[in-house]
């Protein structure tokens, strides 16, 4: 690689511009990525499948901002004619009959698909350590997890094994791995990207496709490429006249910004929790410091900044019920094939009634209205993406019996946006003393995708981030 000044770590938009000018060849860039994957991915396990026949072609009429660039697809969505394992032994022999909507859009926009990335089984964990295809490792330190469930996608972007990556996020599964691996991770608004044609509202509407990228502008262009609806979609967030890429450079004026570094968990898995029966989730002091530094940076950029955030722990019990019901609904005849943590969740789901599920959805939506009201007086909330940097591979959730609590504690700052449907983005704005990246999250108001992208671009410009991890990924 290295045509016309672009290489494997060049932003996707720069690669696309070089291709459009005839200064770089799209097929040659894709071939360069495939060569890098063959050479470097044995250390990471970012990919579970390569598709060189798709990498070699693109739609001839495609003229979008990302036309010609190389993209990866998370193995949690179907890619027609290719294995569709969802990271599970239970589906290891399944082949997809159709493309997911997001995949079809990426193809139509002219992106070249390199392959499918390793995922946590069924998206059930925030680490990619236990699925069918093994652990996805962190390019900053391969002894540590890449996060999950889009761990392979984040590792691929960080190590220069694709230009941009598709991911999905049901509780933080784009933002957590992005923070672990030092890349940008965007979870758009609920309904911004159709989950059809196979899915309607999986996990009670908590799940959405998303983007992992090296820059905020790349993430915006990736959202433009995937956004849209199918007739009959249960949710939709209408796409306006202005593209999200255009919004990145749009002035925001002085924003009302809040920041919070505390997260709370209910005292027990059941019932409705409040401040009197909740406990604080431990947050690494360097992570706290990173958020405070970013808040101060926002102040220096002319925004009005204050401390505070909504309490969200009451979302956790109904969210857990919805997740267990979703696991129980998976068409798996032999649950001994599942990750033990997912098998336990499915077994718990078996004990729930349809009425339990309806009550959980009602409780979730009622609590979401209270949480979202916080944005009546605030434009953006800044928090950590995670309470602590990436743990070592196999460390988190090693005991299936306690895995759910560990996972939800780690997702304390991310899963609320899945419950409310708000857009959120993780930015790689700091480095821990361990040498691992720290992610800082921006959560916007309902349908405020353009707003958080614009603020993210301001922060990226004020605090540039290295486009490649240290050492060994040349």
Architecture overview:
The protein is α/β, with parallel strands linked by helices and 474 residues long. The protein folds into 2 domains: 246 residues, Amidase signature (AS) domain (Amidase signature (AS) enzymes); 196 residues, Amidase signature (AS) enzymes (Alpha-Beta Complex), CATH 3.90.1300.10. Helices cover 33% and strands 15% of the residues. The chain contains 15 helices and 15 strands. Strands 1-3-2-6-8-7-14-15-13-9-12 form an 11-stranded mixed beta sheet, with helices on both faces. A hairpin with a 5-residue loop joins strand 14 and strand 15. Helix 11 packs across helix 13. The radius of gyration is 20 Å and the shape is globular. About 1% of the residues have low confidence.
